């Protein structure tokens, strides 16, 4: 059975812990020790107060559900300790220098870094962008004021530009745009809207290229404990963990 170390014990961490059974959570770490202890109580994992002790525990893969800064700080060490890694805070990988470091560390240690589809559909075939021309790659995201942590009395656009810029201002809200960019091999355009009339997280993907064109609209239920994070994002980690044990791989 797959043995997991959980880095980040907030909303997604708790959902993962509630689904343990097909995998085992061996160790947990959070910068807020009480959160790690909550998951220790649910799952029987050991909660560590220091990252350096956590990373030495006996598990195969770190599941990161913490923050962009946590990935920047800890991902190289995770790989150097011979563990695979699932990264939810994909925004950390916008910097090509850091991305190359992670790729080199993973190769050096024979490890893999997995980026789940997260809160969107359609990431699988977006990878054709690396072998065939895409002329349009746009994410239009609409979230509530609570999800974005800003006040708004009417719908308004709060960002228009490239994914690698947007993630700097909204590191908890547009990791999906960076996942799209990494899949397609080109920086996605992002339009971000705040709308007091919505209480769901809406992601619309507009893609055009030599293959033809597509439009995907995902109307996401927010997670119970964090309105910025769609429930689908947590489900997508669970499905990734599940398929790791299956020799038949579905989807590109
Ligand atoms: N790729 C995707 O599609 C999506 C990615 N996300 C990202 O996933 C991550 C987790 O999401 P949630 O569980 O909803 O967030 P959350 O805020 O509920 O939980 C994050 C937990 O990580 C801990 N943490 C943060 N930085 C840390 C550090 N440096 N070291 C140790 N612990 C640290 C926090 O104390 C907190 O307990 C966030 O970065 C979020 O933006 C969320 C939704 C979709
Ligand atoms: O969960 C979502 O809707 C998307 C999200 O927060 C992110 O990509 O960072």
UniProtKB/TrEMBL annotation:
GO terms for molecular function: aspartate dehydrogenase [NAD(P)+] activity; NAD binding; NADP binding; oxidoreductase activity, acting on the CH-NH2 group of donors, NAD or NADP as acceptor. Its EC number is 1.4.1.21. Residues 153-238 form the Aspartate dehydrogenase domain. Pfam families: Asp_DH_C (PF01958), NAD_binding_3 (PF03447). It comes from the Archaea. The keyword NADP applies. The active site is at residue 203. Pathway: Cofactor biosynthesis; NAD(+) biosynthesis; iminoaspartate from L-aspartate (dehydrogenase route): step 1/1. It catalyses: L-aspartate + NAD(+) + H2O = oxaloacetate + NH4(+) + NADH + H(+); L-aspartate + NADP(+) + H2O = oxaloacetate + NH4(+) + NADPH + H(+). Residues 8-116 form the Aspartate/homoserine dehydrogenase NAD-binding domain. Keywords: NAD, NADP, Oxidoreductase, Pyridine nucleotide biosynthesis. One of its GO terms (biological process) is NAD+ biosynthetic process. NAD(+) binds at residues 119, 175. Belongs to the L-aspartate dehydrogenase family. Specifically catalyzes the NAD or NADP-dependent dehydrogenation of L-aspartate to iminoaspartate. The iminoaspartate product is unstable in aqueous solution and can decompose to oxaloacetate and ammonia. This is L-aspartate dehydrogenase. It comes from Methanoregula formicica (strain DSM 22288 / NBRC 105244 / SMSP).
